[in-house]
Amino acid sequence: MKKGTGKGLKVLTASALLSLTLASSAMASSQEGKQNGQLVPLRYVAESIGAKVEWDNAKQQAIVLRGPIQLIFTIGQKEAVLNQERIPLSAEATIIDHKTMVPLDVLNQVFNAKLNWDEATGIHIGEEDIVSNGSYFVHLLQTEQWQQAHGMLNESMQKKAAPEFLQMYFTSYKAVLGTPEQLVQVEVDKNAVHQSVKLLYQTKEKTPFGIAVRFDAEGKVDDLFMPYTPSAGYQKPSYDNPDKYVEKEVVIGEGEFALPGTLTLPKGEGPFPVVVLVHGSGTNDRDESIGAGKPFRDLAVGLAAQNIAVLRYEKRTLEHNLKSALHPHFTVKEETVDDALAAVKLLKQEKQIDPDKIFVIGHSQGGMLVPKILEQDQEKSIAGAVIMAGPSIPLEDLMLIQFKNALERAKAAGQPTEAIEQQIQSWEQFLSILKDPQYSVDHLPEGVPSSNLVWWYDFRNYHGPEIAKNQSVPLFIIQGENDVQVPAEHLEDWKKALAQRNDVSYKLYPKLNHLFIEYDLPSTGMEYYAPGNVPAYVIEDIANWMRKQK
Questions:
Q1: Would you tell me how many other CB atoms lie within 10 Å of the CB of residue 511?
Q2: Residue among 180, 191, 249, 251 at smallest CA distance from 215
Q3: Which of 429, 452, 475 is the C-terminal boundary of a domain?
Q4: Any bridge partners for residue 101, and if so which?
Q5: Rounded to the nearest 5 degrees, what angle is found at the Cα of 182, between the Cα atoms of 176 and 184?
Q6: Is residue 232 part of a domain?
Q7: What is the DSSP letter of 528?
Q8: Model pTM score
Q9: Please, are residues 254 and 224 in contact by the beta-carbon 8 Å criterion?
Q10: Are residues 104 and 205 in the same domain?
Q11: Which of 185, 380, 458, 460 is the most exposed place for a label (fewest CB within 10 A)?
């Protein structure tokens, strides 16, 4: 995956800003034609691309704030102040019809933008400027211009997401996260499927509001993801040796739900055994980034050092979040199973991969779905599978247990419990309806406040061990003893259910939490935000088990 922060706002350090100031002569010549000195209404243009504009009447100054940039215009002056350094302007800032007017070329230069201005039609943004286009799209949502925002979607999305849906979608998140006000951070991410701009705003409530706007090859908005959260301090493991592997971008599947992925290959000609990594619940990226941990990345580089290739990919609900939500029959098959099998299919076509040694590793919900994946593997392409912290009971039952355990921890710590108690009550009410046999995927209850009822009714009462009883694909089931999400007794449940099979191995690891990272204190999940890695001994155990499979 190619990640970066681009230019201008995105990685405009103090030294870069100083260089920009010293290169003021280049600044005046960077724009051609009517842009050179063309005056535009500052507030309208700046706020359209995510900036916050403040007015100091006493000083007759307009202050523009966007990310690390502070740009100050003083009325009547032919220079501005960029992060405390003076820069020349092609025309002086002025007030016309009660509007602060400034040269457009300086905004383009400072924000590395491709903006044009027409008195009749307003702002126009170059297709290649996805940062400005992304922030302009969010501006349209902020200002409730639903029809105009709908017009920025590509043709396929326009048919699925009506302006009324965009209104409901955005306002529902705004009600929880607050009203986005000032753009404070930008990340540009280009993969084999989308070019995305990830925008982090500060809200009026001083809380973060993140949104990823995904563009197709034609520069149209193809999907959205909220709430986007920036990474939290991942540190590479000691066993990550770039000299032992190469990585290449691949595409899993095809059509509107194609997924970008990374194939990590050991150095050498191969053919190599390979592992497909299957995510847990939630909107996971290819690294399964959670807090400061990236367990899937750890597995990829660690196994590559053991001469085992690894394929990991963005989960469908992350890369195609809005399209998944709009899917009329979205189940775990569409969410997880289909894409895992598409990844297996892709690997069979790779020259450097041994087609007889394709394995699957499923973590958490991905682990509990391993039997379902094997069941759907009609061509019997999967040689074996590893289940990491896979729940042995239905997910809806596990969630109730998790809520109740959280309540007990809160009580023990002397923390407020009212919110958790309400959550338990709401979930129990939902379970009473979900478990009611009169309802099904084809006969959903009415008036239930859930947007994914089809998903739940398709997945309810799912027992992975019961499916695995009658299967013959070798399994390695591993579990952390310090797992607050999927307690260690789930491993014992798998053992009991599969007692008649002689092709299943098990291992329980002391200290490991749900991310398979060591933690000395009882896990609460808060430790996920401290840097940590999957230990080398776990990777070695997986590699050794794979080598034993014929």
A1: 14
A2: 191
A3: 452
A4: 41, 94
A5: 100
A6: no
A7: G
A8: 0.88
A9: no
A10: no
A11: 380
Q: Based on the structure, what is the number of domains in the chain?
A: 4
336/296 same-domain check: yes
Cα separations in angstroms, 136 against 10, 76, 118, 130, 183: 16, 29, 16, 9, 11
Of 174, 198, 225, the position where a domain reaches its end is 225
State pLDDT tens for residues 410-428.
999 999 999 999 999 999 9
Distance CA 23, CA 521 (A): 54
- 275 and 361 in contact (C-beta within 8 Å)? yes
pLDDT in tens, 209-223: 999 999 999 999 999
Alpha-carbon span 366 to 389, nearest angstrom: 9
For 494, phi then psi, to 5°, come to -60, -40
Place of tokens 């963005």: 314
What are the backbone angles phi and psi of residue 333, rounded to the nearest 5°? -60, -50
- Under the banding of pLDDT at 50, 70 and 90, the label for residue 35 is low
Q: Can you say whether the dihedral through the CA atoms of 82, 84, 85, 86 is positive or negative?
A: positive
| Contact indicator for 384, 475 with CB cutoff of 8 Å | yes
Task: Please give the residue range of the domain that contains residue 425.
Answer: 394-452
Q: Which two tokens stand for residue 457?
A: 């009714």
What is the Cβ-side half-sphere exposure of residue 137, based on CA atoms within 13 angstroms?
30
The verdict on 182 and 103 lying in the same domain is no
Predicted pLDDT of residue 520: 96
Clarify whether residues 314 and 388 are in a common domain: yes
Cα separation, 3 vs 376, in Å, equals 34
